[in-house]
């Protein structure tokens, strides 16, 4: 009880000094809890949607996917004959059965040719209005579609794009473009996570999506009373045989949820990883806080020991303070985490994904995890200062001698740090020298961990050396004030090292990712320059990414083009000369001109020969694995066609980035074995302008596709390079934003260290002011101390991060990304920014120091 009273008294006596540590715990716990609440809410939303929209049993074509995405390489969904509906109705336990048609491989535009697709990446769905949809949708305006010129749209899409009754829209599919006017608007009875949904009548949907009537993509089956979904599935399967895919509502919902879950897990664990980094940085802040508080209470601890308190009681007193800090910070963090989750939901709403706060899900495990993490991390971080407090002898404390310097411990720390850093450096060297990316990645991970721990452990030794150098370079120009700032930073190298290490972690990751991102862009750009010989690349923004025949014809009819190349893929079962059968193998089919559009290196033969009839190419690694040489025959059983025996005319190099590992054949060869109705559509179309007419052809090509084919995008090489740069830049900016949490916690650490240091040096500051140091000079001294600590952390972090990034690039080189590029503008900006971070962190401590009363400061004991 005495220990608890002492801990409570000390905690509330230093509540101002504990505040920043509590904020660090709060931020870290809030990020963890916010991530968990947000992803749990997303799961709840999608669970409700999938359960509400699935019929008791669904019958689809054998080739359709489990998730209901029905598009094939022909651009049309797999279908079942309308006669199957009658067969299903005869199955035992069937209350009703209804055929429907839908597709997600569509583009919908308004009268101005603006796309009505969700900005969140959610699908655009066009389907037939049916009884199953009527359960989850309520017509709030107008009527359901009747006839070929009517379409109904969901309310969210109508509101977002300002659609009203009577507005004209166009539905673009592989069949062609269908025009209709909005006849009705329907609202979801459950939360719509952001999909854009358009309804046609059944006959129009069949013609628009499939190109013929008398077929359905889905048959929705409702069970009679007392019949379970599992029993209904058995009955329907018994009636139809095994030529169709039959799924229960749970199976459909689980398949859909699995797809969503894979995306959510990536986001969830990435965000938790950044929260973990913030926790790691927060540990340094807490260690510094308690170390300085213990140092300031040395005499008090001595008195406690003198009147009978044991080491264990002193130790426990400090740990109880840490426990109180952890509980308070974690409890506030749990509440803040729920606020972060709501904020993320609002942000997703602005991006087009509608999430209702009615579905806000706070599982019991979320606050439990947040509290446990916050308390455990705080108590563990305070353990070393608590242990040092318990080791202070009563007489030394009463003499204000503090804990004796442990030279042996310092030497052991230095040796251990050097060993860890050396081992980490060796692991990075092994990773850089690896001949396989998979092997090297393990060594890279080990090297990153060891060098990071090594730099943290050796921090005090590095601080003693680096700060002296920075003092010569940065501080001496400020005269005596600069020298005092240098001595203050060197006064306690362990404290300076820990404070700098907190900033080092975040900046090391920033530097590493900057190097990797810049190297990827530089390597890909260089590969484009060396490999791509065509002027323009046309691709589709539709979910299936396919380009229909009418669009290809429009490209070929564009004036100013010298050459147009079609490029498509199909799947086949391959039988290699060594007798191996390889199912679901992708085979790329293109026009012979593709050999000049993309200059793929070969190790044997010429790629042009692979486009001869009944010929193909294989990649080098595939050839080595299956004993294939020039002239070898590979049996290719096309998924939707006959079996061909193709002769290998070229073996492509594995040392390439674009289409690495692809097998090529000609479109003529593909057409010989695959029926015209089953021929896959193009995935890409390449166009080359007549010499000297590139700009005019580019303009003409965009104009030819703009009105009738808004789903297509035309890019030249400059566009592609910029797109690549933008995509990687957006990814890095998102990562930097998440790393900002760790950097904010590190800044709090600098602020806390300076604030406690000012309190620790109260009498010293009073004496300096008494002998003539002005308030302005005092504030400058504290600011310079802060800047040198921040720059010290930045130097360590940027150096370490660039070493990690350079090693990672060596592994990327094994995958074709061969150029190393150091983004000096980014590195320089971060370094200069670190100095400003130091200035910012010193504002409050410097202001408080300048306001000290000189006499009161001198009288401080």
Automatic annotation (TrEMBL):
<feature type="transmembrane region" description="Helical">
    <location>
        <begin position="446"/>
        <end position="479"/>
    </location>
</feature>
<feature type="transmembrane region" description="Helical">
    <location>
        <begin position="824"/>
        <end position="847"/>
    </location>
</feature>
<dbReference type="InterPro" id="IPR025857">
    <property type="entry name" value="MacB_PCD"/>
</dbReference>
<keyword id="KW-0472">Membrane</keyword>
<dbReference type="GO" id="GO:0005886">
    <property type="term" value="C:plasma membrane"/>
</dbReference>
<feature type="domain" description="ABC3 transporter permease C-terminal">
    <location>
        <begin position="738"/>
        <end position="853"/>
    </location>
</feature>
<dbReference type="Pfam" id="PF02687">
    <property type="entry name" value="FtsX"/>
</dbReference>
<feature type="transmembrane region" description="Helical">
    <location>
        <begin position="414"/>
        <end position="434"/>
    </location>
</feature>
<feature type="domain" description="ABC3 transporter permease C-terminal">
    <location>
        <begin position="274"/>
        <end position="394"/>
    </location>
</feature>
<feature type="transmembrane region" description="Helical">
    <location>
        <begin position="318"/>
        <end position="342"/>
    </location>
</feature>
<feature type="transmembrane region" description="Helical">
    <location>
        <begin position="784"/>
        <end position="804"/>
    </location>
</feature>
<feature type="transmembrane region" description="Helical">
    <location>
        <begin position="500"/>
        <end position="522"/>
    </location>
</feature>
<dbReference type="InterPro" id="IPR003838">
    <property type="entry name" value="ABC3_permease_C"/>
</dbReference>
<feature type="compositionally biased region" description="Polar residues">
    <location>
        <begin position="60"/>
        <end position="74"/>
    </location>
</feature>
<keyword id="KW-1133">Transmembrane helix</keyword>
<dbReference type="Pfam" id="PF12704">
    <property type="entry name" value="MacB_PCD"/>
</dbReference>
<feature type="transmembrane region" description="Helical">
    <location>
        <begin position="734"/>
        <end position="759"/>
    </location>
</feature>
<feature type="transmembrane region" description="Helical">
    <location>
        <begin position="362"/>
        <end position="384"/>
    </location>
</feature>
<dbReference type="GO" id="GO:0022857">
    <property type="term" value="F:transmembrane transporter activity"/>
</dbReference>
<feature type="domain" description="MacB-like periplasmic core">
    <location>
        <begin position="499"/>
        <end position="700"/>
    </location>
</feature>
<dbReference type="InterPro" id="IPR050250">
    <property type="entry name" value="Macrolide_Exporter_MacB"/>
</dbReference>
<keyword id="KW-1003">Cell membrane</keyword>
<feature type="domain" description="MacB-like periplasmic core">
    <location>
        <begin position="19"/>
        <end position="238"/>
    </location>
</feature>
<feature type="transmembrane region" description="Helical">
    <location>
        <begin position="269"/>
        <end position="295"/>
    </location>
</feature>
<protein>
    <submittedName>
        <fullName>FtsX-like permease family protein</fullName>
    </submittedName>
</protein>
<feature type="region of interest" description="Disordered">
    <location>
        <begin position="60"/>
        <end position="79"/>
    </location>
</feature>
<comment type="similarity">
    <text>Belongs to the ABC-4 integral membrane protein family.</text>
</comment>
<keyword id="KW-0812">Transmembrane</keyword>
């Amino acid at each position: 009880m005495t220990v608890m009273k002492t801990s409570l008294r000390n905690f509330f006596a230093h509540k101002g000094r504990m505040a920043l540590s509590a904020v660090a715990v709060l931020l870290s716990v809030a990020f963890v809890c916010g991530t968990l609440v947000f992803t749990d809410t997303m799961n709840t939303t999608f669970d409700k949607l999938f359960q509400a929209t699935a019929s008791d049993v669904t019958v689809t074509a054998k080739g359709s996917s489990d998730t209901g995405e029905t598009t094939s390489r022909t651009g049309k969904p797999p279908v079942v004959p309308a006669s199957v509906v009658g067969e299903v109705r005869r199955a035992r336990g069937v209350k009703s059965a209804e055929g429907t048609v839908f597709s997600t491989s569509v583009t919908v535009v308004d009268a101005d040719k603006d796309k009505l697709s969700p900005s969140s990446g959610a699908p655009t769905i066009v389907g037939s209005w049916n009884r199953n949809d009527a359960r989850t949708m309520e017509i709030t305006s107008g009527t359901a579609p009747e006839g070929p010129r009517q379409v109904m749209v969901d309310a969210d899409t109508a509101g977002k794009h300002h659609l009203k009754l009577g507005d004209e829209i166009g539905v673009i599919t592989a069949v062609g473009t269908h025009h209709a006017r909005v006849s009705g608007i329907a609202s979801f009875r459950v939360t719509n996570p952001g999909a854009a949904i358009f309804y046609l009548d059944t006959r129009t949907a069949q013609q628009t999506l499939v190109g013929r009537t008398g077929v359905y993509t889905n048959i929705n089956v409702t069970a009679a009373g007392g019949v379970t979904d599992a029993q209904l599935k058995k009955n329907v399967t018994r009636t139809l045989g095994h030529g169709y895919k039959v799924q229960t509502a749970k199976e459909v919902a689980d398949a859909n949820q699995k797809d969503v879950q894979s995306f959510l897990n990536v986001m969830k664990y990435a965000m938790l990883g950044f929260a973990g980094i913030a926790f790691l940085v927060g540990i340094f802040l807490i260690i510094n806080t308690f170390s300085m508080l213990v140092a300031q209470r040395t005499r008090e601890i001595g008195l406690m020991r003198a009147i009978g308190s044991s080491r264990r009681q002193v130790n426990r007193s400090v740990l109880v303070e840490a426990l109180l800090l952890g509980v308070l910070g974690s409890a506030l963090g749990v509440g803040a985490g729920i606020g972060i989750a709501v904020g993320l939901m609002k942000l997703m709403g602005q991006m087009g994904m509608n999430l209702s706060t009615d579905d806000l899900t706070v599982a019991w495990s979320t606050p439990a995890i947040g509290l446990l993490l916050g308390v455990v991390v705080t108590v563990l971080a305070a353990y070393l200062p608590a242990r040092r407090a318990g080791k202070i002898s009563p007489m030394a404390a009463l003499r204000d001698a503090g804990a004796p310097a442990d030279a042996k411990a310092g030497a052991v720390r230095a040796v251990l740090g050097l060993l860890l850093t050396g081992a980490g450096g060796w692991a990075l060297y092994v990773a850089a020298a690896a001949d396989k990316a998979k092997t090297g990645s393990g060594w890279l991970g080990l090297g990153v961990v060891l060098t990071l721990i090594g730099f943290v452990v050796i921090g005090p030794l590095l601080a003693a050396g680096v700060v002296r150098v920075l003092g010569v370079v940065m501080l001496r120009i400020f005269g005596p004030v600069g020298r005092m700032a240098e001595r203050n930073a060197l006064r306690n190298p362990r404290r300076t090292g820990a404070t700098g290490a907190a900033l080092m972690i975040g900046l090391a990751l920033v530097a590493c990712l900057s190097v990797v991102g810049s190297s990827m862009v530089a390597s890909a750009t260089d590969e484009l320059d060396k490999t791509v010989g065509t002027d323009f690349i046309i691709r589709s923004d539709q979910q299936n990414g396919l380009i229909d025949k009418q669009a290809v014809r429009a490209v070929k009819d564009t004036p100013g083009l010298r050459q147009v190349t079609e490029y498509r893929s199909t799947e086949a079962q391959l039988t290699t000369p060594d007798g191996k059968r390889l199912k679901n193998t992708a085979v790329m089919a293109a026009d012979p001109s593709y050999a000049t559009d993309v200059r793929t290196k070969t190790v044997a033969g010429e790629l042009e020969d692979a486009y001869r009839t009944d010929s193909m190419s294989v990649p080098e690694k595939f050839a080595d694995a299956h004993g294939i040489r020039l002239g070898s025959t590979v049996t290719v059983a096309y998924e939707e066609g006959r079996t061909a025996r193709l002769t290998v005319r070229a073996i492509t190099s594995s040392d390439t980035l674009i289409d690495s590992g692809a097998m090529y054949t000609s479109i003529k060869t593909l057409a010989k074995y695959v029926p015209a109705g089953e021929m896959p559509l193009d995935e890409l179309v390449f166009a080359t302008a007549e010499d000297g007419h590139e700009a005019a052809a580019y303009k003409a090509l965009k104009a030819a596709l703009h009105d009738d084919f808004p789903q297509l995008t035309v890019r030249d090489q400059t566009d592609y390079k910029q797109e690549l740069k933008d995509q990687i830049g957006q990814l890095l900016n998102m990562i930097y934003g998440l790393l900002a949490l760790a950097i904010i916690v590190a800044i709090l650490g600098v602020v806390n260290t300076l604030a406690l240091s000012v309190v620790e040096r109260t009498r010293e500051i009073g004496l300096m002011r008494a002998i003539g140091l002005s308030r302005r000079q005092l504030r400058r001294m504290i600011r310079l101390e802060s800047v040198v600590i921040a720059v010290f952390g930045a130097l360590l972090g940027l150096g370490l991060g660039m070493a990690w990034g350079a090693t990672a690039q060596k592994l990327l080189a094994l995958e074709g990304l061969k150029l190393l590029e150091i983004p000096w503008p980014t590195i320089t900006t971060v370094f200069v920014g670190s100095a400003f971070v130091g200035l910012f962190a010193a504002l409050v401590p410097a202001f408080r120091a300048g306001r000290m009363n000189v006499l009161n400061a001198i009288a401080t004991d």
